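In the laboratory, one determines a bound structure by crystallizing the protein with its ligand and collecting diffraction data. In a computational setting the workflow is compressed into a single prediction: the sequence and the ligand go in, and a structural description comes out. We illustrate the idea with zinc ion.
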Amino acid sequence: MLNSFFKDKFPFCYDYFSTLLNLVKNNQRDFPQGIIFEGSDTKTQYLFTLELARILNCDNYLNPNCDCINCRWIKSYTHPGVNIVSQIHFKGEDDDTKTIISVKQALLIENTLSLSSDYHRFFIFFSSKEKQNFNQDYSDFKTLGYDDNISYAIEPLNNQTFHPTTLNALLKSVEEPPKKTTFVFLTKSKEDILSTIVSRCLVFKLASNKNASGFYNRGIFEDYLNLTFENAFDFSQKLKDCAINQQKDSSEILDEFLLYLKELLKNNIKNDDSYNKILNDVKIVSYSIKQLNANMSDKNTLDTMALRLVRGY
Ligand SMILES: [Zn+2]
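The predicted complex, in structure-token form:
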């Protein structure tokens, strides 16, 4: 079954997929044909997807340390039915594109699916390139028994590399795949994917709810580092969505955001400019919490806060 490693990381998806996998394994339900994972941690989305593929293909799935041929293949990224699709993976011989996921790849998938297979086939889409340095941390892969010597980057899809033309060419395969076929798209946000595909997929937020340092919603708080006037309202909307999805008050989300800022402050103690900016932002967020506690409207307070964080006052 799903490794309890994911229980802390993605509590909702852990419960959901544990239940679903049990039903699928007992032939009581089909596994979804299309899944979109949203969130900022693409690496862990990938690991989660590999584990889904592994359990679906393993004959001894109740044993978390199973070492059958399917498990071994997946943990070394050589399983014949589990395919990565990116700018540098799953390319045909006649395909010389290197910076996009091409229409030729969509057609290659269609051809592949026309052949029968005993495996539960996966096509896992993300953005990739050959890595220049190998210092990225893949220790979580190692913990789960995977080869951690990964020579490519694992990044979210975007509409430059994953062009609408390709998505349209892929539509038929995603819509009517043979049985036991699953398409998985790893994204930061489903907005980066054509809506016609989105409507044919189940969408799950795989945002890290909880992280090693113990607070929630880190993935969303990290957007604060790239805050501009253009995306300020997206940021406030995301904070509001967090509150709704997690059935919390907006002020509770801001309490957590404040903890995040205080941690940033600690990490920037030697950098005067950043330190002063974050210190000022701590004041802005504290003020917004007071406003929320005084029953000011959530939307206005969060929007104003986001703008003030960009402006600095
Ligand atoms: Zn196995």
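The beta strands are 34-38, 82-85, 121-125, 181-187, 202-205. Keep in mind that any predicted model is a hypothesis to be tested, not a measurement.
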